[in-house]
Specification:
By secondary structure, this protein is mainly α. Helices cover 50% and strands 9% of the residues. The protein is built from 21 helices and 14 strands. The chain has a 3-stranded antiparallel β-sheet, with no helix packed on it. It has a 3-stranded antiparallel β-sheet with strand order 4-9-8. Strand 5 and strand 6 form a beta hairpin. Helix 5 packs antiparallel against helix 6, helix 5 packs across helix 7 and helix 11 runs antiparallel to helix 14. The longest helix is centred in the N-terminal third of the chain and has 29 residues.
Length: 622
């Protein structure tokens, strides 16, 4: 009988013989077979490259490429909807990510994928990103951030396909990509509204259908707005800027009181309180509203932070600092972040309650901040005032808006100011309603697009209309049909489909020298439109024909509020606006005595003393 020891010995001998045979065969092939030697060399290089790739730090391109592949792998992943489902989903994804991180570098990509999916349902993404940065391996964190960046790029690529919505009858297009004969305006480079090189992309707003003169192209609500300090007198709603009915009735009462005796007038003044029927803020006398709805909307969005008499001492400090800066930008930025958070909370609540809006579109997937990023802006130089206001903003809202201090850096705050300076519009009062003139205390230095068609009560920002370019001979005008900050874009002349919309950023009744001075100092626009060239040529021709006339065009301007001055709409609709203004000037000079030399010098000095901001040309966020 064969013992177990004998079997084991036989197996061992067989294995040794087989091993020696393979070694002999391998050595023979290595020495005599050229193809075998080449295969060995290729295998060795492949192993070396794999080892090098594992050992070396992945490049940014490697990370972005891998992030894009990970995004594709979860494109069709179903997202939870209810708060309970989101919480369970979040915990499951984080748990999977942590387990995979413990498995080593080979599982980092899959771990990043789970952490990214958890991030998408977390209510405060900025906070979670900061936690990831402290608790996950460096490569995992970089992959998560790269996936976020790639997702943003994909959304940006779709943005101009879905916004504005079709019912607005306009489309944002890049003028640099318009083919020959596509655009009705054949001079995109000539009319470029930036100083120096044309910014790429150079976008504008174009009509998608034929529009008749006086027809409304579209209407639009504001993103954020605020009253001018001089209009915060209780006569205009602090939220929507509507003239408060009580204030209008009071104005009529004042006219009647003028006919009464001095004693009766004094008695009336003692009993009178501005906008006594308006709805006031419970804590401060500064905010007066036209309705309870406006009061509640304002409180939910921003006034709970900004009320100077609130329990937070920082609110009063912020208000005082903003007043001293003579800028509305800090107030608008504070309001913007309050509105941004309020809108997202309401969206989240609607989703949680299962309430669906039938009017939603693909454009609604974009947040207000993402809309804002598409706007042009002026590149400003940060100032000490900006740093102080940013610090106050952080103190004011950081508790209510987690992550605000980390998100709103100095550069981002300056960029927001630049967007407001380039894109904000003046809100005009209803009809002939007068607004108190600015004083030294109520003066503000903010730039706003204003054609001076009537008195200005506030400043407002709009998502669609910010893409309208300037035109000295505009084809549309911003009007306020509801006497609030809601606007309507009205055609001043027939507009063909695919024609660009243009609005005047300044008073179009100014002469060419004054217009160009304002455009250059406020917006860095060097306008060379047909109207400007025609007026400059006419001025040179007049100068050549009369030795006493200076070569440069007159800096004298037409006062649009003066009696007998032609209206903006009439001049803009004229076949030759420049000729219409010239004809009016000719008649006006015959009827009115010439201004004294002292008045002319004062007027010229005012134009010369107009400040030029220390800024660089307008930019796009791309």
């Amino acid at each position: 009988m064969v013992s177990g020891k004998n079997i084991a010995a036989a197996v061992s001998v067989t294995a040794v013989v087989a091993g020696l045979s393979y070694i002999a065969y391998f050595d023979y092939k290595r020495r005599n077979d050229r193809q075998f030697r080449r295969k060995l060399k290729r295998d060795r290089k492949r192993v070396e490259k794999t080892a090098e790739k594992i050992s070396r730090e992945p490049t940014l391109d490697d990370i972005n490429e891998q992030a894009l592949e990970l995004l594709k792998s979860i494109t069709n992943a179903k997202q939870p909807e209810s708060p309970e489902e989101k919480e369970q989903y979040f915990m499951a994804q984080v748990s999977k990510g942590e387990s995979l991180c413990g498995a080593g570098p080979a599982a980092y990509a899959e771990a990043a994928c789970h952490f990214f999916q958890a991030l998408k349902v977390y209510p405060n993404p900025v906070e979670l990103v900061m936690i990831y940065q402290k608790t996950t391996p460096d490569l995992v964190f970089k992959l998560v951030m790269a996936m976020m960046a790639q997702e943003v790029r994909q959304k940006q690529a779709r943005y101009y396909d879905v916004f504005p919505t079709e019912d607005k009858h306009v489309r944002i297009k890049d003028k640099n990509k318009l083919g020959e004969g596509k655009a009705k305006d054949k001079k995109p480079a000539k009319d470029a509204d930036t100083k120096g090189d044309v910014v790429t992309p150079n976008r504008g707003l174009f009509a998608t259908k034929d529009v008749a003169a006086d027809e409304i192209v579209y209407e639009e609500d504001s993103v954020v707005s605020t009253l001018l300090p001089c209009a915060q007198n209780g006569k205009y709603c602090y939220h929507c800027m509507r003239a408060i009915p009580a204030a209008e009735a009071e104005a009529e009462a004042e006219d009647t009181a003028e006919a009464k005796s001095e004693a009766a007038e004094e008695e009336t003044e003692e009993k009178k309180e501005p906008a006594s029927d308006g709805i006031k803020c419970d804590k401060c006398a500064e905010a007066v509203y036209c309705s309870e709805e406006c009061r509640q909307d304002a409180y939910d969005a921003y006034h709970q932070f900004l009320c100077p008499n609130s329990s937070a001492a920082t609110a009063n400090d912020f208000a005082e600092q903003a007043k001293k800066s003579h800028e509305l930008a800090p107030i608008l930025i504070a309001k913007f972040f309050g509105i941004l958070v309020d809108r997202e909370k309401k969206k989240e609540l609607a989703r949680a309650l299962g309430v669906s809006d039938k009017n939603t579109s693909e454009a609604d997937e974009y947040t207000t901040w993402e809309h804002l990023e598409s706007m042009r802006y002026l590149e400003l130089i940060p100032s000490a005032t900006d740093a102080a206001m940013l610090h106050k903003l952080g103190e004011l809202m950081s508790d209510s808006v987690p992550g605000l201090n980390e998100f709103v850096t100095g550069d981002r705050y300056t960029m927001l100011k630049g967007k407001l300076d380039y894109n904000a519009y003046a809100v005009h009062s209803a009809g002939d309603a007068e607004v108190p003139k600015e004083t030294e205390d109520t003066h503000v230095s903010d730039t706003m697009r204003d054609d001076h068609s009537s008195s200005t009560v506030g400043i407002s920002l709009y998502l669609i209309s910010s893409h309208i370019a300037h035109g000295c001979d505009p084809n549309v005008q911003i009007v306020f049909p509801d006497n609030t900050d809601k606007i309507a874009v009205k055609a001043l002349k027939p507009i063909a489909a695919d024609e660009e919309l243009r609005v005047s950023f300044v008073n179009p009744l100014l002469d060419v020298a004054a217009r160009q001075k304002q455009l250059q100092s406020s917006y860095r626009i060097k306008c060379t439109c047909t109207k400007c060239e025609t007026e400059l040529a006419a001025a040179k021709e007049n100068a050549a024909g009369n030795e006493d006339v200076p070569a440069t065009p007159s800096t004298e301007t037409i006062d649009p509020t003066a009696e007998g001055t032609p209206s903006f709409a009439a001049v803009a609709a004229s076949p030759s606006p420049a000729a219409a203004v010239a004809a009016f000037n000719s008649e006006h000079e015959k009827a009115a005595p010439a201004e004294s030399q002292e008045q002319e010098q004062e007027q010229e000095k005012e134009l010369q003393d107009e400040p030029t901001p220390e800024e660089t040309p307008a930019s796009d966020n791309e």
